[in-house]
Amino acid sequence: MTSNWKRTLGNVRSFIGNSMGGLRGGSNLASWVVAGTLAYFLWVKPSQELKREQQERAALAALAEASNPNRYIEKRKPIPDPQETGLIYGNKNRNRKPDE
Fold it and tell me: Where is this region: Disordered (predicted)?
């Protein structure tokens, strides 16, 4: 019974060791550290810096837009539609009786 779980544990360790390239001990750990460091500096850090730069650019653009003295500001109220129905074309109050 005890040899069964020991054998299973040994098979799992063997599978993990083979899937990581067959390296054991310190060299295995060192290779994973090197691979993780390279992945961080080649993929993770540049993407974080790019995201931060995009956020900074967006903040600067919003600030520049808000402080631009030549930006367009609507100063007039829109002209309301004179028709009661709200339609652009059609019957303009022809079916209404005149007030007495």
Answer: 71-100
For 28, residues 6+ apart whose C-beta sits below 8 A from its C-beta are 17, 20, 21
Based on the structure, what is the number of domains in the chain? 1
Counting Cβ atoms within 10 Å, is residue 28 exposed (0-12), middle (13-18) or buried (19+)?
Answer: middle
Range of the domain at 60: 41-68
In a domain, 52, yes or no: yes
pTM: 0.43
Quick: pLDDT tens for 26-78. Answer: 777 888 899 999 999 999 999 999 999 999 999 998 888 777 777 777 777 77
Residue 76 vs residues 24, 70, 73, 79, 83: alpha-carbon distances, Å: 77, 17, 9, 9, 20
